[in-house]
Design brief:
It is built from 25 helices and 8 strands. With 564 residues, the chain is mainly α. It has a two-stranded antiparallel sheet with strand order 1-2. It has a two-stranded antiparallel ribbon with strand order 3-4. A hairpin with an 8-residue loop joins β7 and β8.
Length: 564
């Protein structure tokens, strides 16, 4: 590319960039065609990188998208040298700061040419772009884009100055950021803009005291908004050299803001806010505020949370159920029938199919993925509060619904088996299962007593008999494999056994069916029904036939295993 071509292309770029709000728009306005030369295409490519505005260093520019075949644009370090030479040349020739900043910054990231000069030129161009704030556009969207882009430009300019040791340039960036933050407060812009300007300055090693007054003004401006109050305090807490008493005061104010907000909210929303307050108070070791938050949650357990019961109904193919029952009661022995009951998929279904269904539901109901998920225990207190969009949470929802549908069917089949073999009890089960290496005779007999109680309608007795034995069976299985099940006394703490949850993952690694491992987790642990915890904490006020059958099926599955 000779000098005339370079100047002609520079004018074309400046014309395309005139009035554009972002680099991708400039790319579109360039109108690159197949007939354009490599230099035009090199510039067009440079304008397509996505900026990680909250990150620094070589990863600042990222591809627009990635596929199995690779990314586009390619990583900066994979761009050919001729294209980078074009970036270097045109970075000096163009006048529009949007393109100038992009080309100099890419050359800095690529380590092409004088990095210090590229960083300075890019930072100065970023400051020119930042000074376009506030926008006079009549379009709300354009004004918002100019504002948020300006915060990113200030952050990147400061990062470039510090990376290259240009302290005077950094001072200029900080002055610009403080001035624009003041303007944002004056015109009443939102916290995303004000705090966007102040955040990188607060984290800088030469943060001036002027920032404290602006943060206090921000606190006043956002006083009615708990989340932005928290965000402002979080930035204040990032100040280097903060006095410990001031630090504790700010932490306390952050938790108190959430508690005050929770008092004004409806019970269900208040529950989420109180959980956040408890978590933050625990992190900050503010024991009094932690107790206040937990007490507030406990008071809400009897409140109307606005929840409505949701039933699941489905037409059961009775002929299929009857065929299953006939098959099992047609076995030669009751032992064959019971092991046959757990020889197929568990009541929660097959794991891979559940994951696929969870993903399909997520695609069909995208709004649901944005909601917070709360699961209440039988005492009315939350046992799990999490993001519905997380894959594991979606999976648990599918598994619980399947267990709700299929649990009564399994209970019906189990009832038919026990009505057919009416003599099965403590002695029979003790003799049948007690010979297995992982089943102590006392545990085998306990399973037999649970079967007797279940058959007689004492479902509560069956469940409370089985729950501790399920944990014992799990531990005995791990002992057979030579895996640790015990934590010895160390560092002044007493020795203890692993919890049930901590033992299930190693069993899966040892080859147990992952679908059945998921069943045990969903039925017994906190992410699912949490039946074990509710029972042992006295919250299981009513035990149904289905509850008892599901626990009995879990015990029979573990007892029927033949470890090798």
């Amino acid at each position: 590319m000779d000098e005339n071509e370079e100047q002609t292309l520079a004018r074309r770029i400046d014309e395309a960039a005139n009035g554009a709000l972002d680099a991708v728009t400039v790319n579109q306005l360039l109108g690159v065609t197949a007939d354009d030369g490599d230099a035009v295409k090199a510039v067009a490519l440079a304008l397509l990188y996505y900026e990680h505005s909250e990150e620094t260093g070589v990863d600042y520019f990222a591809p627009l998208y990635e596929t199995d075949q690779g990314s586009f644009p390619p990583p900066v370090d994979q761009i050919d040298d001729d294209a980078v030479k074009t970036w270097n040349a045109l970075a000096e020739s163009v006048s529009d700061p949007l393109v100038k900043s992009r080309l100099h910054d890419l050359c800095f990231v690529r380590r092409s040419g004088n990095g210090r000069d590229h960083a300075r030129e890019a930072a100065e161009a970023y400051l020119a772009l930042a000074d376009r704030y506030p926008s006079s556009s009549e379009a709300d969207g354009d004004r918002a884009r100019v504002a948020m882009n300006a915060t990113h430009y200030v952050a990147r300019a400061l990062d470039l100055a510090r990376q290259t040791g240009q302290d005077e340039l950094a001072e200029s960036v900080i002055a610009t950021g403080l001035r624009l933050a003041g303007s944002a407060l004056d015109i009443g812009d939102g916290p995303g803009v004000v705090l966007g300007f102040l955040s990188p300055i607060v984290r800088d090693r030469a943060c001036p005291s002027d920032v404290d007054d602006l943060l206090e003004r921000a606190r006043g401006a956002f006083v009615g908004d708990v989340w932005n109050t928290r965000a402002t305090i979080a930035i204040q807490l990032e100040r280097q050299g903060l006095d410990p008493e001031v630090q504790e005061g700010l932490r306390r104010e952050s938790v108190e803001a959430i508690l005050a907000f929770a008092e004004r909210e409806a019970p269900m929303n208040a529950l989420f806010h109180l959980r956040d307050a408890a978590e933050l108070a625990s992190r900050y070791k503010l024991d009094d505020l932690y107790r206040t938050a937990v007490e507030g949650m406990q008071r809400l357990r009897g409140a109307d949370l606005g929840l409505t019961p949701q039933g699941i109904s489905a037409e059961l193919p009775r002929e299929d159920v009857d065929r299953w029952i006939d098959h099992l009661v047609g076995q030669e022995t009751w032992g064959d029938a019971l092991t046959g009951l757990v020889a197929t998929m568990p009541p929660t279904g097959e794991l891979d199919a559940n994951r696929a269904l969870a993903e399909e539901i997520a695609k069909e109901t995208p709004l649901q993925n944005m909601l917070m998920r709360a699961q209440l225990g039988r005492d009315g207190l939350p046992v799990a509060m999490s993001d519905s969009g997380q894959p594991e949470n979606r999976l648990v929802d599918v598994e619980q619904k399947k267990m709700g549908l299929q649990g009564p069917v399994y209970a019906m089949v189990l009832r038919a088996i026990l009505e057919h073999w009416t003599t099965v009890g403590e002695d029979e089960v003790g003799e049948q299962f007690g010979a297995r290496a992982h089943i102590p005779e006392s545990v085998a007999k306990a399973i037999g007593r649970a079967i007797e109680r279940h058959r007689s309608g004492d479902f509560e007795g069956a469940v409370y008999t089985l729950l501790p034995r399920i944990e014992r069976l799990t531990r005995e299985l791990l002992l057979l494999f030579g895996d640790p099940v015990y934590i010895p006394p160390m560092f002044g703490k007493r020795g203890t056994h692993l919890t049930l949850g901590a033992m299930l993952d190693p069993l899966e690694a040892r080859g147990l069916d992952p679908s059945w491992i998921r069943y045990l987790k969903v039925l017994l642990l906190g992410d699912g029904y949490n039946l074990r915890n509710d029972a042992l904490h006295g919250n299981l006020d009513h035990v149904s036939e289905t509850d008892s059958a599901l626990v009995l099926i879990a015990a029979i599955y573990l007892a029927s295993l033949e470890p090798r």
